[in-house]
Amino acid sequence: MKKKTVLIIGFLISFGLGFYMNILVSNKSDNKSEIKQSNNKNNIKKEENMKLGAFSLSLSVKDIQVSQQFYEKLGFSVFAGGLEKNYLIMKNENSLIGLFQGMFDNNILTFNPGWDENVNNITKFDDVREIQLELKNKGLKIDPEVDEKTSGPAGFMITDPDGNVILIDQHR
User: Fold this and answer.
1) For residue 94, what are the domain limits?
2) Which residues contact 103 (CB under 8 A, 6 or more apart)?
3) Does 37 map to a domain?
4) 133 near 148, Cβ under 8 Å?
5) Largest pairwise CA distance in the chain
6) Which of 21, 45, 46, 112 has its CA 20 to 30 A from that of 5?
């Protein structure tokens, strides 16, 4: 019994010391990274993220009514679209999914520059043409491309390395 007690106490002590040392080492590396970050801020202009707007997952469904019933069980409700149009936009808090029957073959990640998740206009957003130009400059293939001489609603697609299609779809 004494051996078990000594082993348990030894284990707890070594665990506590290890935990304490981990905190000390973590704090030192955090301080170093803070110093590096502050030095980098002085020398490098911070690159801003693209403002892609609302995000939704557009699902290619076989039977839109069956899919609607399924997602309603998950707490989603119809936000836009209609069964007669073969698409529904459904919402659960800030999460958006689109159900599309017969419109495309695979699921698509969708971003809507200029909108938030409630389809409210965002004052500050990156126009789809600016996003396209930046992505082209980074070497991404755009298909189809938006005519850069136009303005207003437009959209383009890119494909990630795993074959997932991403739609950048501006409605205003």
Assistant:
1) 54-170
2) 60, 86, 87
3) yes
4) yes
5) 83
6) 21
Q: What is d(CA 16, CA 12) in angstroms, rounded to the nearest whole number?
A: 6
Phi-psi group of 86: left, alpha or beta (phi > 0 → left; psi -120 to 50 → alpha; rest → beta): left
- Bridge partners (DSSP) of residue 82 are 87
Tens digits of per-residue pLDDT, 17-47? 343 334 444 444 445 545 455 445 444 444 5
Does residue 66 sit in the same domain as residue 31? no
CB neighbours of 82 closer than 8 A, spacing ≥ 6?
Answer: 88
Cα distances (angstroms) measured from residue 154 to each of 18, 19, 100, 125, 164: 56, 54, 19, 14, 20
Q: Are strands 95-101 and 54-61 parallel, antiparallel or unpaired?
A: parallel
Residues 71 and 39 in one domain: no
Q: Is the backbone of residue 81 left (phi > 0), alpha (psi -120 to 50) or beta?
A: left
How many other C-beta atoms can be found within 10 angstroms of the C-beta atom of residue 4?
Answer: 8
Pick the residue with more confidence: 41 or 128? Answer: 128
- Name the nearest CA neighbour of 88 among 113, 60, 73, 68: 68
The structure's pTM equals: 0.68
